[in-house]
Write a structure and sequence with these properties.
Number of helices: 15
Shape: globular
Distance between the termini: 21 Å
RNA sequence: CGGGGCGUAGCUCAGCCUGGUAGAGCGCACGGUUCGGGACCGUGAGGUCGGAGGUUCAAAUCCUCUCGCCCCGACCA
């Protein structure tokens, strides 16, 4: 491709609202253009990168026995009403009406449509399992789109769905998909982690996320290199905390603690370690108020708590609710004497003796509190938020926290959608049963953005070869020097003729401009044709990543390039 | 949805407080010099200052409404 005939315009400055490197660089290098909040056009070079990823995704999914199809972006409300998600999905679902006032939505995901298709065609266990996928534009009306393609409202996603007659079959496909995803991200030369994840609103029994590691990632993950444990912090467990040494129970006592409503204040005031204070929080949920107790030096994992009580939403209660539940203003709550409310205590407080907690009475705490004698929670559970340095539950030592960009998420759905929508098959005994399902998502644009987050420097993008819009940038340094131009033209023709993806910078620009643009656009291999090296019959070859330059005799250039590209 | 901020040339922004001829840099066009890391000089084009209403002799500037966008939070495959 000749640059002068291509559509590639770079800018020196990025828009003020572009904050993260991938967003800034995609804008500056002319890959994308914003149309509205969270909605982008993919310009030619951006589309080339996305297309390369899509080709890799297709290749690996096809290898795994997945079959491609394409479903509509616009979906009728009826299907969503059948699954129950028309009511539940909330404002993220973009709802639209046609001229007859019939309701539709722009699909944020396709469980309903695929389930509708399969229930019509598949009737027997003999036809199962089936895995289908598509790559398609989705729309989710995110509250706050940001970071360019990392969190758009309209975005490209590969979504796959599998249907099974047994849990074992789902397990096998799930593992196959997990392997396919690993092949995909490896093929993109990305550094990534597979982590256990919360199943969130999609539901189901098991779930893994694929995280491209990057400081700018929106998700926090914990890992232990020694034992291989890896999980999203929303889901992560730690080995049980070491409890302070048990003591002989002493008498329960009320002590006034005026103005001491935070755990550190109370601990300091009473001269006890924060580990011996039980932090007691009141939450409001759709299932009513819930009280959660956790060790004073730790935080509650609200996702775990929400899952435990099967809540659709959960938030820290306001003062009014706290007073209603505990009889005191916030800051003086405790598990002693609470009635008519579910109290979930974390395992971290189970071994405590003679601990301190709020007295459910203004400006007062209790000391010498002991489980069993003074208070008993409704549930003992793990609702602890892990933190840096906690020990891995698999025994490999301390957990390390890092950040990642969630580029893929796979779920075992079970029969949630098939049961709701009557997607049944007949088994070998003649029974009608709902199919067991899995679903598997992979963000196309987000993965390309993540690749840039992980591969850039101060001057621009440093594409991994598999996702680069072109493999080779051929820069002719002076378009008025006929020898330079003739040489560059000939190299361009020869390389193109051998199916090398070459972008030929034939613009009438000064060398400095071409070098800056080359660095910004980030094509992995650069050939520089200039009068100096040409006088020796050589062309400069350099790699974007390490900028290592070497002079190559003109006659060897094409062979060398082909050798490097494999 | 709560809090904060911004809409002025293609892009990045100044001007607004204190009303009085609409600005800079980059980019673009033309001419000249230059040509291995975003060159220099000269000339030029380009904006009903997001929109509507109001105050005023006079509004980019003050007021009201409205639309769009962004940031923090909550939320979130």
């Amino acid at each position: 491709m000749r640059w002068t005939q291509y559509y590639l315009f770079t800018t020196r400055e990025a828009p003020a609202d572009a904050e993260v490197p991938s967003h800034r660089l995609m804008m500056r290098s002319g890959m994308i253009k914003k149309v509205a909040a969270g909605i982008y056009s993919y310009l030619p070079s951006g589309w080339r990168s996305l297309s390369k990823l899509m080709a890799i995704v297709r290749r690996e999914l096809d290898r795994s026995g997945c079959v491609e199809l394409s479903m509509p972006a616009i979906q009728p409300a009826e299907l969503w009403q059948e699954s129950g998600r028309w009511q539940r999905y909330g404002k993220e679902l973009l709802r639209i009406s046609d001229r007859h006032e019939r309701q539709f939505c722009f699909g944020p995901t396709h469980e309903e449509v695929i389930t509708d298709i399969v229930r019509r065609d598949v009737k027997s266990y003999r036809q199962l399992p089936i895995s289908l996928y598509q790559i398609q534009t989705k729309f989710r009306d995110e509250i706050r789109p940001r970071f360019g393609l990392m969190r758009g409202r309209e975005f490209l996603m590969k979504d796959a769905y599998s249907f099974h007659s047994s849990a074992e079959s789902l397990d096998a496909t799930y593992e196959e998909m997990k392997a396919a995803y690993q092949r995909i991200f490896r093929a993109c030369h990305l550094d990534f982690a597979v982590v256990e994840a919360d199943t969130g609103t999609i539901g189901g029994s098991s779930s893994h996320e694929f995280m491209v590691t990057a400081e700018t990632g929106e998700s926090e993950i914990v890992r232990n290199a020694a034992d291989g444990y890896a999980a999203n912090t929303e889901k992560a467990n730690a080995a049980p905390l070491v409890a302070p040494a048990a003591e002989e129970p002493v008498a329960l006592a009320e002590v006034p603690t005026p103005g001491k409503s935070s755990v550190p204040d109370v601990a300091a005031f009473l001269a006890v370690p924060t580990q011996k204070v039980v932090k007691t929080l009141v939450y409001e949920t759709d299932k009513g108020p819930i009280v959660a107790a956790v060790r004073g030096d730790r935080e509650v994992n609200e996702v775990k708590l929400g899952n435990l009580v099967d809540a659709e939403w959960l938030q820290l209660a306001g003062e009014e609710t706290v007073v209603k539940v505990t009889g005191s203003p916030p800051g003086f709550a405790g598990p002693v004497g609470l009635k008519g409310v579910r109290v979930v205590a974390d395992e971290s407080v189970r071994g405590l003796t003679n601990f301190v907690c709020g007295a459910n009475k203004g400006e007062t705490h209790l000391t010498g509190v002991n489980w069993g004698r003074d208070a008993s929670p409704t549930d003992w559970a793990d609702i602890l938020l892990v933190r840096d340095g906690d020990l891995s539950p698999l025994g490999g030592g301390p957990l390390e926290m890092s950040r990642g960009i969630e580029v893929g998420h796979i779920f075992k759905l079970g029969t949630k959608y098939s049961a709701a929508m009557g997607c049944n098959y007949t088994d070998d005994a003649g029974n009608d049963l709902p199919m067991i399902m899995g679903c598997y998502g992979l963000g196309i644009g987000r993965t390309v953005a993540a690749a840039i987050e992980q591969n850039h420097d101060a001057d621009g993008i440093v594409w991994p070869m598999p996702l680069a819009p072109f493999q080779v940038l051929l820069a002719a340094l002076n378009m008025e020097d006929s020898t330079v131009v003739e040489t560059a033209e000939r190299l361009y023709q020869e390389l193109s003729g051998q199916n090398v993806e070459v972008l030929y910078d034939d613009r009438n620009e000064r060398p400095g401009v071409k070098f800056k643009d080359a660095d910004l656009v980030g094509i992995p291999l650069r050939l520089t044709v200039g009068a100096k090296s040409l006088a020796e019959g050589k062309v400069e070859m350099s790699f974007r990543r390490d900028r290592e330059k070497q002079l190559v005799p003109l006659s060897d250039v094409v062979a060398r390039v082909r050798g490097l590209l494999g």
